[in-house]
Request: fold
Amino acid sequence: MKDKKHNHEENCKCNENCNCEEQCKCDEENKCDENCTCGEEKCQKNCSCGEDKVNEYLDMAKRLQAEFENYRKRTFFELKKAKEDGEINVIEVFLPCLDTFKVAKKSITDPKVLEGVEMIENNISQALEKIGVQKIESIGQKYDPNLHNVIAIANVADKENDIILDEYQAGYKYNDRVIRYSKVIVNKKED
Reply:
């Protein structure tokens, strides 16, 4: 028996009381086609394709949400790293200036001039400390390959092995990241 409006087969799962003007698009298994647009609530309840579509869209929305969250986190860390790399580039420009103060202080004989140079050096060092730059402690410390580069070895009997005797060039860290290793002279006792 066929419905005038839907052109139903007798065993069609669509609601026979549906008031839509469209022809029913049931397949051989009597399930509504995805293209059914009648919009009737009773027909939609009997339609098995609607639930599958809802689950498909829900899964797609969850995947998109997860992808966006991953993108947001990745972008945040990339921006943070780019900012830190930019700050390190600027800091690296100032480090040779601090090295020249060390050399200049050795050649200055006038105490007033020496005092002025030390004041400028201290101001630059304090400014760098405020933004997170730390000088790596070297002289008298135990040699650490993660912080120091050995440029020479000395043999001093009254000092322990691997103790740093002198610093040729100061090293610096920025937020616990080494931006320049200390160049040092290390004590090695002969066996």
Summary: Residues 1-6 have pLDDT under 50 and may be disordered.
